[in-house]
Structure formats: structure tokens, C-alpha cells
Amino acid sequence: LLCSQNYPLYIRSVPTENELKFHYTVHTSLDVVDEKISAMGKALVDQRELYLGLLYPTEDYKVYGYVTNSKVKFVMVVDSSNTALRDNEIRSMFRKLHNSYTDIMCNPFYNPGDRINSRAFDTMVNSMMMQVC
């Protein structure tokens, strides 16, 4: 989860030993996210959901993207060997993440732009990741 200025608000990876590799993958995908947003142009203004789909595949992973109207970016890196995940499942996972993020933003004690330290958000992300693994 990255804010509109491209610094991380929330990062979770499983397994944790490859966390630095995933950080790099997420940050390299930001160029592709910006390209897709600018290519779609004004058509995106009318949409409420900005699912970008597959950003790019690598040998080991597939990288998917989603952008909110406030330019908060969700990037998901999934193992390429996982054939059970289709586009619809990825889209619904992004919707769940977006809904949980919206709940955090509605919290009067959360300052927008701060790192996300929410037990409820962690629980939701962990349950989503366990379903995928």
C-alpha cells in the first residue's frame, strides 16, 4: 500500500525472508502504474474503481495494481505458479483491501499519510494471504 507520493503506508510479505526483494519489485512497478494511469487518461476520472490488472509478470511472480481516486496505490505480488488466482479473485482482493483502507481513513485518530498500524487491517491481510497460500 503506497500513498500518492509513493512512500509505503503498509507492506506485508510472506515469506519474510524475501521481503527486500518484494520491496524492490513493488517500487519498480510504480513506473508501470504511472504509465497505465496516464495512458487511460480522463477515462479514469469517471470510474470509481481503478483496477489496473496485471502490471507485469516475472519468472517467479506476477505483479498486479490498483489505484484509488485519491491516488493511493495498492500493489500485489503473487507467485506465478499459483494458477488458482484469476483476475476476478485478484480484483475482489483489491476491493477488500480498499474497503479496509477506507475503514482506517474513517478513524478520527488516524492521520492520513502515516504508516498503517491497525490490528484489524493486519488480521484482514493475513487472512487473505493464508487463503492464497
UniProtKB/TrEMBL annotation:
The UniProt keyword set, sorted, is:
Cytoplasm, Endoplasmic reticulum, ER-Golgi transport, Golgi apparatus, Transport
User: Which domain of life does this protein belong to?
Assistant: Eukaryota
Instruction: Tell where it localizes.
Output: Cytoplasm, Perinuclear region; Endoplasmic reticulum; Golgi apparatus
Query: Where does the UniProt entry say this protein principally localizes?
Result: cytoplasm
InterPro entries annotated for this entry? Longin-like_dom_sf, Sedlin, TRAPPC2L
Cross-referenced CDD domains, in alphabetical order? Answer: TRAPPC2L
Name of the protein described by the UniProt record: Trafficking protein particle complex subunit 2-like protein
